[in-house]
Amino acid sequence: MAYHYIPWIMEQEGTAFQQVHNRWRPQNLLFLRQVQLILKDMRSRSANLELARDELVTLSYAEKYIKYLRRMRIWLREAEFAWHADHLKFLKSVAGFYSDYGAVLRLLKMEQLRGLPTEPAETKLIPTGV
Fold first, then answer.
1. Rounded distance, CA 67 to CA 88, Å?
2. The pLDDT value given to residue 27
3. How far is C-alpha 56 from the geometric centre of its chain's CA atoms?
4. What is the pTM of this model?
5. 33-65 per-residue burial string, b: 16 or more CB within 10 A, e: under 16
6. How far apart are CA 117 and CA 113, in angstroms?
7. Which of the chain's ends, N or C, has fewer CB atoms near its CB within 10 Å?
8. Spans of the chain below 50 pLDDT
9. What pLDDT is attached to residue 112?
Protein backbone atom coordinates (compact mmCIF):
# COMPACT_ATOMS: atom_id res chain seq x y z
CA MET A 1 0.00 0.00 0.00
CA ALA A 2 1.31 3.42 -0.94
CA TYR A 3 1.19 6.02 1.81
CA HIS A 4 0.21 9.43 0.54
CA TYR A 5 -1.07 11.34 3.55
CA ILE A 6 1.12 10.09 6.41
CA PRO A 7 4.41 11.35 4.91
CA TRP A 8 2.79 14.72 4.16
CA ILE A 9 1.46 15.02 7.74
CA MET A 10 4.86 14.11 9.20
CA GLU A 11 6.56 16.60 6.88
CA GLN A 12 4.23 19.37 8.07
CA GLU A 13 4.18 18.58 11.80
CA GLY A 14 7.17 16.34 12.35
CA THR A 15 9.55 19.14 13.31
CA ALA A 16 7.49 20.11 16.37
CA PHE A 17 8.62 17.09 18.37
CA GLN A 18 10.65 17.37 21.54
CA GLN A 19 13.55 14.98 21.07
CA VAL A 20 13.87 13.78 24.67
CA HIS A 21 10.32 12.49 25.12
CA ASN A 22 9.15 12.38 21.52
CA ARG A 23 6.24 14.60 22.51
CA TRP A 24 4.49 16.85 20.02
CA ARG A 25 4.94 20.52 20.97
CA PRO A 26 3.21 22.73 18.40
CA GLN A 27 4.18 26.37 18.36
CA ASN A 28 1.80 27.73 15.75
CA LEU A 29 -1.70 27.02 17.09
CA LEU A 30 -2.32 30.56 18.36
CA PHE A 31 -1.46 34.00 17.09
CA LEU A 32 0.87 36.10 19.23
CA ARG A 33 -1.88 38.67 19.88
CA GLN A 34 -4.23 35.94 21.13
CA VAL A 35 -1.62 34.73 23.59
CA GLN A 36 -0.93 38.28 24.78
CA LEU A 37 -4.62 39.00 25.38
CA ILE A 38 -5.18 35.73 27.22
CA LEU A 39 -2.17 36.32 29.46
CA LYS A 40 -3.25 39.91 30.12
CA ASP A 41 -6.73 38.74 31.14
CA MET A 42 -5.30 36.00 33.37
CA ARG A 43 -2.95 38.48 35.06
CA SER A 44 -5.71 40.99 35.76
CA ARG A 45 -8.09 38.38 37.18
CA SER A 46 -5.31 36.97 39.33
CA ALA A 47 -4.32 40.43 40.55
CA ASN A 48 -7.91 41.23 41.51
CA LEU A 49 -8.18 38.05 43.55
CA GLU A 50 -4.85 38.79 45.21
CA LEU A 51 -6.20 42.22 46.19
CA ALA A 52 -9.19 40.47 47.76
CA ARG A 53 -7.03 37.87 49.53
CA ASP A 54 -7.40 39.46 52.98
CA GLU A 55 -11.16 39.42 52.56
CA LEU A 56 -11.22 35.88 51.22
CA VAL A 57 -9.44 34.46 54.26
CA THR A 58 -12.26 35.72 56.50
CA LEU A 59 -14.93 33.71 54.66
CA SER A 60 -16.09 30.18 55.39
CA TYR A 61 -14.21 28.52 52.52
CA ALA A 62 -10.93 30.26 53.29
CA GLU A 63 -8.78 27.14 52.83
CA LYS A 64 -10.28 26.47 49.43
CA TYR A 65 -9.78 30.07 48.32
CA ILE A 66 -6.11 29.94 49.33
CA LYS A 67 -5.68 26.61 47.55
CA TYR A 68 -7.25 27.95 44.37
CA LEU A 69 -5.23 31.19 44.48
CA ARG A 70 -2.02 29.21 44.86
CA ARG A 71 -2.92 26.92 41.97
CA MET A 72 -3.93 29.88 39.81
CA ARG A 73 -0.51 31.47 40.37
CA ILE A 74 1.11 28.21 39.28
CA TRP A 75 -1.13 27.97 36.20
CA LEU A 76 -0.31 31.57 35.30
CA ARG A 77 3.44 31.07 35.66
CA GLU A 78 3.26 27.88 33.64
CA ALA A 79 1.27 29.63 30.89
CA GLU A 80 3.73 32.54 30.78
CA PHE A 81 6.60 30.10 30.39
CA ALA A 82 5.01 27.51 28.09
CA TRP A 83 3.55 29.68 25.35
CA HIS A 84 6.97 30.19 23.74
CA ALA A 85 7.66 26.53 23.16
CA ASP A 86 4.45 24.51 23.51
CA HIS A 87 0.99 25.82 22.73
CA LEU A 88 -0.71 22.65 23.94
CA LYS A 89 0.81 23.06 27.39
CA PHE A 90 -0.13 26.75 27.28
CA LEU A 91 -3.76 25.90 26.53
CA LYS A 92 -3.78 23.31 29.30
CA SER A 93 -2.50 25.96 31.72
CA VAL A 94 -5.12 28.44 30.55
CA ALA A 95 -7.87 25.86 31.01
CA GLY A 96 -6.60 25.03 34.51
CA PHE A 97 -6.47 28.70 35.46
CA TYR A 98 -9.99 29.46 34.30
CA SER A 99 -11.34 26.28 35.88
CA ASP A 100 -9.95 27.35 39.24
CA TYR A 101 -11.19 30.90 38.69
CA GLY A 102 -14.65 29.52 38.02
CA ALA A 103 -14.46 27.45 41.19
CA VAL A 104 -13.60 30.57 43.20
CA LEU A 105 -16.55 32.42 41.66
CA ARG A 106 -18.84 29.47 42.45
CA LEU A 107 -17.73 29.48 46.09
CA LEU A 108 -18.18 33.25 46.28
CA LYS A 109 -21.68 32.89 44.87
CA MET A 110 -22.46 30.29 47.53
CA GLU A 111 -21.12 32.65 50.19
CA GLN A 112 -23.22 35.46 48.74
CA LEU A 113 -26.37 33.32 48.83
CA ARG A 114 -25.64 32.65 52.49
CA GLY A 115 -25.48 36.43 52.98
CA LEU A 116 -21.81 36.79 53.92
CA PRO A 117 -20.25 39.39 51.55
CA THR A 118 -21.88 42.81 51.72
CA GLU A 119 -22.21 45.43 49.04
CA PRO A 120 -18.88 46.40 47.45
CA ALA A 121 -17.16 49.51 48.71
CA GLU A 122 -15.15 51.87 46.51
CA THR A 123 -12.40 49.65 45.05
CA LYS A 124 -9.41 49.94 42.78
CA LEU A 125 -9.75 46.73 40.78
CA ILE A 126 -7.86 46.03 37.59
CA PRO A 127 -10.24 45.79 34.60
CA THR A 128 -10.61 42.19 33.40
CA GLY A 129 -12.13 42.96 30.00
CA VAL A 130 -9.96 42.28 27.01
1. 24
2. 76
3. 20
4. 0.76
5. eebeebbebbebbbeebeebeeebeebebeeeb
6. 9
7. N
8. none
9. 86
